[in-house]
Amino acid sequence: MSHEHPHHHDHGHEHDASGEPVSGARRRFCQVCIGSATAITVGTVVYPIVAFLKLPLRLGDAKPVEIPLDRLSPGQAYYADFQGQQVIVVMTEAGPRVFDAACTHLGCNVVWDTAHSNFHCPCHGAVFSGEGKVVSGPVSSPLREIPFEIKNGVLVIA
Amino acid sequence: MRVIRLIYGWIDERFATTPLLEKNVTKKMVPRTLSWAGCFGGLAFFTFLVQVFTGMLLLMYYKPHPEAAWDSVTFIKSNVTMGWLVQRIHAVAANLMIALVLMHMARIAYYKIYRKPRELHWVSGVCLLLFTTIMAFTGYLLPWTQLSYWGAKVGTEIPSAIPIVGQDIVEWVRRGKAISGETLGFFFSLHIWILPAVMSAFMGLHFVMIRRTGISKPL
Ligand code: HEM
Ligand code: FES
Question: Are A91 and A127 in contact (CB under 8 A)?
Fold first, then answer.
Protein backbone atom coordinates (compact mmCIF):
# COMPACT_ATOMS: atom_id res chain seq x y z
CA MET A 1 0.00 0.00 0.00
CA SER A 2 1.46 3.36 -0.90
CA HIS A 3 0.30 6.95 -0.81
CA GLU A 4 1.31 9.74 -3.07
CA HIS A 5 3.70 12.09 -1.30
CA PRO A 6 4.32 14.95 -3.68
CA HIS A 7 7.01 16.44 -1.46
CA HIS A 8 8.88 13.16 -1.29
CA HIS A 9 9.81 13.33 -4.97
CA ASP A 10 13.44 14.01 -5.60
CA HIS A 11 14.15 17.73 -5.45
CA GLY A 12 16.72 17.72 -8.22
CA HIS A 13 16.31 21.23 -9.52
CA GLU A 14 14.24 23.31 -7.18
CA HIS A 15 13.64 26.96 -7.71
CA ASP A 16 12.53 29.65 -5.30
CA ALA A 17 9.74 32.11 -6.00
CA SER A 18 11.95 34.31 -8.22
CA GLY A 19 13.17 31.37 -10.29
CA GLU A 20 16.62 31.25 -8.67
CA PRO A 21 17.79 27.71 -8.02
CA VAL A 22 17.69 26.91 -4.28
CA SER A 23 21.15 26.12 -3.01
CA GLY A 24 21.61 23.26 -0.57
CA ALA A 25 23.76 25.39 1.71
CA ARG A 26 21.12 28.06 2.09
CA ARG A 27 18.48 25.44 2.77
CA ARG A 28 20.69 23.81 5.37
CA PHE A 29 21.32 27.18 7.03
CA CYS A 30 17.58 27.76 7.34
CA GLN A 31 17.07 24.27 8.70
CA VAL A 32 19.75 24.78 11.35
CA CYS A 33 18.26 28.16 12.36
CA ILE A 34 14.71 26.83 12.62
CA GLY A 35 15.92 23.66 14.30
CA SER A 36 17.91 25.51 16.99
CA ALA A 37 15.11 28.00 17.62
CA THR A 38 12.71 25.09 18.08
CA ALA A 39 15.14 23.26 20.37
CA ILE A 40 15.65 26.36 22.55
CA THR A 41 11.90 26.95 22.77
CA VAL A 42 11.16 23.35 23.67
CA GLY A 43 14.03 23.37 26.18
CA THR A 44 12.82 26.46 28.02
CA VAL A 45 9.40 24.84 28.37
CA VAL A 46 10.54 21.35 29.28
CA TYR A 47 13.31 22.34 31.74
CA PRO A 48 11.05 24.13 34.29
CA ILE A 49 8.50 21.32 34.09
CA VAL A 50 11.08 18.63 34.78
CA ALA A 51 12.59 20.78 37.55
CA PHE A 52 9.12 21.25 39.08
CA LEU A 53 8.68 17.51 39.28
CA LYS A 54 11.86 17.06 41.33
CA LEU A 55 11.48 16.48 45.07
CA PRO A 56 10.97 19.87 46.74
CA LEU A 57 13.39 21.26 49.30
CA ARG A 58 12.32 20.40 52.84
CA LEU A 59 13.59 22.26 55.87
CA GLY A 60 15.41 19.18 57.16
CA ASP A 61 17.50 19.03 53.98
CA ALA A 62 19.26 22.30 54.79
CA LYS A 63 23.01 22.14 55.20
CA PRO A 64 24.32 22.65 58.73
CA VAL A 65 25.99 25.97 59.41
CA GLU A 66 29.64 25.72 60.45
CA ILE A 67 31.57 28.67 61.82
CA PRO A 68 35.16 28.28 63.12
CA LEU A 69 35.28 29.76 66.64
CA ASP A 70 38.44 31.75 65.91
CA ARG A 71 36.46 33.81 63.41
CA LEU A 72 34.15 35.07 66.16
CA SER A 73 35.46 38.01 68.14
CA PRO A 74 34.05 38.96 71.56
CA GLY A 75 31.19 41.44 71.60
CA GLN A 76 30.47 40.97 67.88
CA ALA A 77 27.53 39.32 66.17
CA TYR A 78 27.28 37.45 62.88
CA TYR A 79 24.36 36.55 60.66
CA ALA A 80 24.07 33.15 59.06
CA ASP A 81 21.44 31.42 56.92
CA PHE A 82 20.02 28.37 58.61
CA GLN A 83 17.16 26.39 57.04
CA GLY A 84 16.01 29.38 55.08
CA GLN A 85 15.98 31.79 57.98
CA GLN A 86 18.49 34.17 59.44
CA VAL A 87 20.17 33.29 62.69
CA ILE A 88 22.43 35.60 64.64
CA VAL A 89 25.54 34.31 66.40
CA VAL A 90 26.88 36.45 69.29
CA MET A 91 30.13 35.98 71.10
CA THR A 92 29.38 36.88 74.71
CA GLU A 93 31.81 36.76 77.62
CA ALA A 94 30.29 33.42 78.60
CA GLY A 95 30.82 32.00 75.13
CA PRO A 96 28.86 31.92 71.87
CA ARG A 97 25.06 31.98 71.69
CA VAL A 98 22.79 31.59 68.69
CA PHE A 99 19.37 33.20 68.24
CA ASP A 100 16.72 33.21 65.58
CA ALA A 101 17.12 36.73 64.16
CA ALA A 102 13.35 37.19 63.79
CA CYS A 103 11.97 39.66 66.34
CA THR A 104 9.26 38.03 68.46
CA HIS A 105 6.96 40.99 67.80
CA LEU A 106 6.28 40.91 64.04
CA GLY A 107 9.29 39.11 62.68
CA CYS A 108 11.72 41.78 61.48
CA ASN A 109 15.37 40.82 61.70
CA VAL A 110 16.94 42.25 64.84
CA VAL A 111 20.26 44.13 64.66
CA TRP A 112 23.16 43.69 67.07
CA ASP A 113 24.16 46.93 68.75
CA THR A 114 27.86 46.55 69.56
CA ALA A 115 28.05 49.67 71.73
CA HIS A 116 25.29 48.52 74.11
CA SER A 117 25.79 44.77 73.65
CA ASN A 118 22.11 44.25 72.93
CA PHE A 119 19.77 43.58 70.03
CA HIS A 120 17.36 46.17 68.76
CA CYS A 121 14.63 45.82 66.23
CA PRO A 122 14.46 48.40 63.43
CA CYS A 123 10.69 47.99 62.98
CA HIS A 124 9.02 49.01 66.25
CA GLY A 125 11.99 49.53 68.50
CA ALA A 126 12.04 46.37 70.61
CA VAL A 127 15.27 45.87 72.57
CA PHE A 128 16.61 42.49 73.70
CA SER A 129 19.60 41.91 75.97
CA GLY A 130 22.65 40.00 74.83
CA GLU A 131 21.00 36.90 76.37
CA GLY A 132 17.92 37.45 74.20
CA LYS A 133 15.73 38.65 77.12
CA VAL A 134 13.21 41.42 76.58
CA VAL A 135 14.49 44.83 77.67
CA SER A 136 11.85 47.12 76.23
CA GLY A 137 9.44 47.59 73.34
CA PRO A 138 6.22 45.96 72.14
CA VAL A 139 7.40 42.40 72.82
CA SER A 140 6.68 39.90 75.56
CA SER A 141 8.79 36.88 74.69
CA PRO A 142 12.56 36.55 74.37
CA LEU A 143 14.40 35.83 71.13
CA ARG A 144 14.20 32.18 70.19
CA GLU A 145 17.43 30.46 71.07
CA ILE A 146 18.90 28.00 68.54
CA PRO A 147 20.76 24.96 69.86
CA PHE A 148 24.30 24.36 68.60
CA GLU A 149 27.34 22.23 69.27
CA ILE A 150 31.05 22.89 69.31
CA LYS A 151 33.14 20.29 67.52
CA ASN A 152 36.92 20.72 67.26
CA GLY A 153 36.74 24.47 67.62
CA VAL A 154 33.93 24.81 65.06
CA LEU A 155 30.47 26.03 65.98
CA VAL A 156 27.91 23.79 64.28
CA ILE A 157 24.20 24.55 63.97
CA ALA A 158 22.33 21.51 62.68
CA MET B 1 15.68 13.40 12.32
CA ARG B 2 15.82 10.11 10.41
CA VAL B 3 14.21 8.28 13.36
CA ILE B 4 11.40 10.82 13.55
CA ARG B 5 10.81 10.52 9.80
CA LEU B 6 10.77 6.74 10.09
CA ILE B 7 8.20 6.78 12.91
CA TYR B 8 6.11 9.39 11.09
CA GLY B 9 6.26 7.35 7.90
CA TRP B 10 5.06 4.28 9.76
CA ILE B 11 2.07 6.12 11.20
CA ASP B 12 1.37 7.95 7.94
CA GLU B 13 1.30 4.69 5.99
CA ARG B 14 -1.44 3.36 8.24
CA PHE B 15 -3.55 6.42 8.96
CA ALA B 16 -2.90 8.65 5.94
CA THR B 17 -2.06 11.60 8.18
CA THR B 18 -0.34 13.65 5.49
CA PRO B 19 -3.45 14.43 3.41
CA LEU B 20 -5.28 15.20 6.65
CA LEU B 21 -2.55 17.62 7.77
CA GLU B 22 -2.37 19.21 4.35
CA LYS B 23 -6.10 19.77 4.17
CA ASN B 24 -6.40 21.22 7.68
CA VAL B 25 -3.03 22.83 8.38
CA THR B 26 -0.25 23.13 5.85
CA LYS B 27 -2.32 23.74 2.71
CA LYS B 28 -5.41 25.20 4.33
CA MET B 29 -6.46 28.44 2.68
CA VAL B 30 -7.34 31.43 4.83
CA PRO B 31 -8.75 34.67 3.43
CA ARG B 32 -5.96 36.80 1.98
CA THR B 33 -7.27 39.84 3.83
CA LEU B 34 -7.15 38.18 7.26
CA SER B 35 -5.10 40.47 9.51
CA TRP B 36 -2.94 39.73 12.56
CA ALA B 37 -5.97 40.51 14.71
CA GLY B 38 -7.26 37.14 13.54
CA CYS B 39 -4.74 35.51 15.90
CA PHE B 40 -6.33 36.65 19.14
CA GLY B 41 -8.82 33.80 19.39
CA GLY B 42 -6.11 31.22 18.88
CA LEU B 43 -3.85 33.02 21.37
CA ALA B 44 -6.64 33.08 23.95
CA PHE B 45 -6.98 29.32 23.46
CA PHE B 46 -3.22 28.96 23.86
CA THR B 47 -3.28 30.83 27.19
CA PHE B 48 -6.10 28.52 28.29
CA LEU B 49 -3.85 25.53 27.58
CA VAL B 50 -1.04 27.23 29.52
CA GLN B 51 -3.45 27.66 32.46
CA VAL B 52 -4.61 24.06 32.32
CA PHE B 53 -1.04 22.84 32.28
CA THR B 54 0.44 25.12 34.96
CA GLY B 55 -2.74 24.62 37.03
CA MET B 56 -2.23 20.86 36.99
CA LEU B 57 1.34 21.37 38.23
CA LEU B 58 0.18 23.71 41.03
CA LEU B 59 -2.39 21.13 42.07
CA MET B 60 0.42 18.75 43.03
CA TYR B 61 1.04 20.91 46.13
CA TYR B 62 -1.97 23.21 46.57
CA LYS B 63 -4.17 22.45 49.61
CA PRO B 64 -7.73 23.87 49.51
CA HIS B 65 -8.14 24.49 53.22
CA PRO B 66 -8.11 27.83 55.08
CA GLU B 67 -5.44 26.56 57.48
CA ALA B 68 -3.21 25.24 54.73
CA ALA B 69 -3.86 27.15 51.48
CA TRP B 70 -1.53 30.09 52.04
CA ASP B 71 1.27 27.90 53.37
CA SER B 72 0.94 25.53 50.43
CA VAL B 73 1.24 28.38 47.90
CA THR B 74 4.24 29.75 49.83
CA PHE B 75 5.72 26.26 49.74
CA ILE B 76 5.27 26.15 45.95
CA LYS B 77 6.91 29.56 45.58
CA SER B 78 9.90 28.99 47.87
CA ASN B 79 10.57 25.26 48.14
CA VAL B 80 9.53 23.66 44.87
CA THR B 81 12.17 24.03 42.15
CA MET B 82 10.84 26.45 39.52
CA GLY B 83 7.64 26.61 41.57
CA TRP B 84 7.82 30.40 41.67
CA LEU B 85 7.91 30.41 37.88
CA VAL B 86 4.95 28.08 37.43
CA GLN B 87 2.94 30.02 40.03
CA ARG B 88 3.75 33.38 38.41
CA ILE B 89 2.98 32.09 34.91
CA HIS B 90 -0.41 30.88 36.12
CA ALA B 91 -1.20 34.24 37.73
CA VAL B 92 0.07 36.39 34.82
CA ALA B 93 -1.39 34.27 32.02
CA ALA B 94 -4.78 34.52 33.75
CA ASN B 95 -4.78 38.28 33.14
CA LEU B 96 -3.38 37.76 29.67
CA MET B 97 -6.17 35.33 28.84
CA ILE B 98 -8.87 37.85 29.74
CA ALA B 99 -7.11 40.55 27.70
CA LEU B 100 -6.82 38.23 24.69
CA VAL B 101 -10.47 37.14 24.84
CA LEU B 102 -11.48 40.82 24.91
CA MET B 103 -9.20 41.68 21.97
CA HIS B 104 -10.60 38.70 20.06
CA MET B 105 -14.13 39.94 20.70
CA ALA B 106 -13.21 43.50 19.73
CA ARG B 107 -12.22 42.27 16.28
CA ILE B 108 -15.46 40.31 15.86
CA ALA B 109 -17.45 43.34 16.95
CA TYR B 110 -15.53 45.82 14.81
CA TYR B 111 -15.87 43.83 11.57
CA LYS B 112 -19.46 42.82 12.42
CA ILE B 113 -18.54 39.16 12.01
CA TYR B 114 -21.24 38.22 14.55
CA ARG B 115 -23.97 38.59 11.91
CA LYS B 116 -25.74 35.69 10.22
CA PRO B 117 -24.65 32.86 10.01
CA ARG B 118 -22.33 33.43 12.98
CA GLU B 119 -24.73 34.52 15.72
CA LEU B 120 -24.08 31.45 17.86
CA HIS B 121 -20.31 31.88 17.56
CA TRP B 122 -20.82 35.21 19.31
CA VAL B 123 -23.19 33.82 21.94
CA SER B 124 -20.83 30.96 22.83
CA GLY B 125 -17.97 33.47 22.85
CA VAL B 126 -19.76 35.72 25.35
CA CYS B 127 -20.32 32.66 27.56
CA LEU B 128 -16.60 31.86 27.31
CA LEU B 129 -15.72 35.42 28.37
CA LEU B 130 -18.01 35.02 31.38
CA PHE B 131 -16.43 31.66 32.30
CA THR B 132 -12.94 33.10 31.89
CA THR B 133 -13.68 35.94 34.31
CA ILE B 134 -15.22 33.51 36.81
CA MET B 135 -12.10 31.36 36.50
CA ALA B 136 -9.92 34.35 37.34
CA PHE B 137 -12.24 35.36 40.18
CA THR B 138 -12.39 31.91 41.79
CA GLY B 139 -8.64 31.36 41.28
CA TYR B 140 -7.86 34.62 43.02
CA LEU B 141 -9.38 33.34 46.29
CA LEU B 142 -7.28 30.18 46.29
CA PRO B 143 -3.97 31.55 47.69
CA TRP B 144 -6.05 32.80 50.66
CA THR B 145 -4.24 36.11 51.06
CA GLN B 146 -5.74 39.33 52.43
CA LEU B 147 -6.28 40.47 48.84
CA SER B 148 -7.96 37.16 48.00
CA TYR B 149 -10.27 37.42 50.97
CA TRP B 150 -11.36 41.00 50.38
CA GLY B 151 -11.55 40.50 46.63
CA ALA B 152 -13.93 37.60 47.13
CA LYS B 153 -15.90 39.52 49.74
CA VAL B 154 -16.44 42.55 47.50
CA GLY B 155 -17.00 40.44 44.38
CA THR B 156 -19.63 38.19 45.95
CA GLU B 157 -21.39 41.29 47.28
CA ILE B 158 -22.35 42.37 43.74
CA PRO B 159 -25.54 40.26 43.40
CA SER B 160 -26.93 41.92 46.56
CA ALA B 161 -27.99 44.81 44.31
CA ILE B 162 -30.63 42.55 42.74
CA PRO B 163 -34.02 43.20 44.38
CA ILE B 164 -35.65 40.51 46.57
CA VAL B 165 -33.41 37.50 45.71
CA GLY B 166 -30.07 39.39 45.81
CA GLN B 167 -29.14 38.49 49.38
CA ASP B 168 -30.02 34.83 48.81
CA ILE B 169 -27.74 34.71 45.79
CA VAL B 170 -24.90 36.25 47.79
CA GLU B 171 -25.29 33.60 50.48
CA TRP B 172 -25.58 30.84 47.91
CA VAL B 173 -22.33 31.91 46.22
CA ARG B 174 -20.54 32.30 49.57
CA ARG B 175 -21.97 29.02 50.85
CA GLY B 176 -23.02 30.91 53.98
CA LYS B 177 -23.16 34.42 55.34
CA ALA B 178 -19.42 35.08 55.25
CA ILE B 179 -16.37 34.08 53.24
CA SER B 180 -15.18 30.88 54.91
CA GLY B 181 -13.54 27.55 54.29
CA GLU B 182 -16.80 26.53 52.62
CA THR B 183 -16.39 29.36 50.09
CA LEU B 184 -12.84 28.22 49.46
CA GLY B 185 -13.96 24.65 48.78
CA PHE B 186 -16.71 25.81 46.44
CA PHE B 187 -14.43 28.17 44.51
CA PHE B 188 -11.78 25.44 44.33
CA SER B 189 -14.16 22.91 42.78
CA LEU B 190 -15.38 25.52 40.29
CA HIS B 191 -11.83 26.56 39.48
CA ILE B 192 -10.09 23.27 38.92
CA TRP B 193 -12.82 21.03 37.62
CA ILE B 194 -16.33 22.34 36.93
CA LEU B 195 -15.46 25.43 34.90
CA PRO B 196 -12.55 23.88 32.96
CA ALA B 197 -14.91 21.06 31.91
CA VAL B 198 -17.70 23.47 30.91
CA MET B 199 -15.22 25.73 29.12
CA SER B 200 -13.76 22.82 27.17
CA ALA B 201 -17.25 21.90 25.99
CA PHE B 202 -18.00 25.47 24.90
CA MET B 203 -14.64 25.77 23.15
CA GLY B 204 -15.30 22.52 21.33
CA LEU B 205 -18.64 23.86 20.11
CA HIS B 206 -17.09 27.21 19.24
CA PHE B 207 -14.41 25.54 17.09
CA VAL B 208 -16.79 23.09 15.40
CA MET B 209 -19.07 25.97 14.43
CA ILE B 210 -16.13 27.94 13.04
CA ARG B 211 -15.19 24.92 10.94
CA ARG B 212 -18.76 24.66 9.61
CA THR B 213 -19.09 28.29 8.59
CA GLY B 214 -15.44 28.88 7.71
CA ILE B 215 -13.48 31.98 8.64
CA SER B 216 -15.36 35.08 7.59
CA LYS B 217 -14.09 36.91 4.54
CA PRO B 218 -13.86 40.66 5.04
CA LEU B 219 -15.56 42.77 2.39
C1 HEM C 1 -7.76 23.23 34.45
C2 HEM C 1 -7.39 24.47 34.60
C3 HEM C 1 -6.87 25.09 35.86
C4 HEM C 1 -6.41 24.53 37.04
C5 HEM C 1 -6.28 23.04 37.35
C6 HEM C 1 -6.04 25.62 37.93
C7 HEM C 1 -5.51 25.47 39.22
C8 HEM C 1 -5.19 26.51 40.08
C9 HEM C 1 -4.65 26.35 41.42
C10 HEM C 1 -4.35 25.03 42.10
C11 HEM C 1 -4.45 27.60 41.94
C12 HEM C 1 -3.94 27.95 43.35
C13 HEM C 1 -2.46 28.14 43.39
C14 HEM C 1 -2.07 29.58 43.28
O15 HEM C 1 -2.78 30.45 43.76
O16 HEM C 1 -1.02 29.84 42.68
C17 HEM C 1 -4.87 28.56 40.95
C18 HEM C 1 -4.80 29.94 41.10
C19 HEM C 1 -5.26 30.86 40.15
N20 HEM C 1 -5.83 30.55 38.91
FE21 HEM C 1 -6.02 28.68 38.13
N22 HEM C 1 -6.27 26.81 37.29
C23 HEM C 1 -6.78 26.54 36.03
C24 HEM C 1 -7.16 27.44 35.05
C25 HEM C 1 -7.23 28.83 35.23
C26 HEM C 1 -7.75 29.77 34.26
C27 HEM C 1 -8.32 29.43 32.88
C28 HEM C 1 -7.63 31.02 34.84
C29 HEM C 1 -8.02 32.40 34.34
C30 HEM C 1 -8.35 32.80 33.21
C31 HEM C 1 -7.03 30.86 36.15
C32 HEM C 1 -6.75 31.88 37.03
C33 HEM C 1 -6.16 31.76 38.29
C34 HEM C 1 -5.79 32.87 39.15
C35 HEM C 1 -6.00 34.37 38.86
C36 HEM C 1 -5.22 32.30 40.30
C37 HEM C 1 -4.63 33.07 41.50
C38 HEM C 1 -3.13 33.16 41.35
C39 HEM C 1 -2.50 34.08 42.37
O40 HEM C 1 -2.99 35.20 42.54
O41 HEM C 1 -1.51 33.67 42.96
N42 HEM C 1 -6.80 29.50 36.35
N43 HEM C 1 -5.32 27.86 39.83
S1 FES D 1 8.87 43.56 64.59
FE2 FES D 1 10.38 43.98 66.04
S3 FES D 1 9.46 45.50 67.22
FE4 FES D 1 7.90 45.04 65.80
Answer: no
Interface TM-score (ipTM) > 0.85: no
Structural domain spans, chain A:
1-61, 65-157
Quick: pLDDT tens for B167-176: 999 999 999 9
Instruction: Give the closest residue (by CA) to ligand 2 atom 4.
Output: A124
Measured by CA distance, the residue closest to atom 3 of ligand 2 is A124
Distance CA(B106)–CA(B113), nearest Å, equals 10
For the A65-157 domain, the top CATH level (class) is mainly beta
- Domains in chain B (CATH in brackets) are 38-213 (1.20.810.10)
Predicted TM-score of the model (pTM): 0.73
Chain B residues with CB inside 8 Å of A57's CB? Answer: 79-81
Ligand 1 mean position to B42 CA, how many Å? 20
| pLDDT tens digit sequence for A76-132 | 888 888 877 789 998 887 788 899 999 999 889 999 998 888 999 999 999 999 888
Contacts 24+ apart (CB under 8 A), B112-117: B113/B216, B117/B213
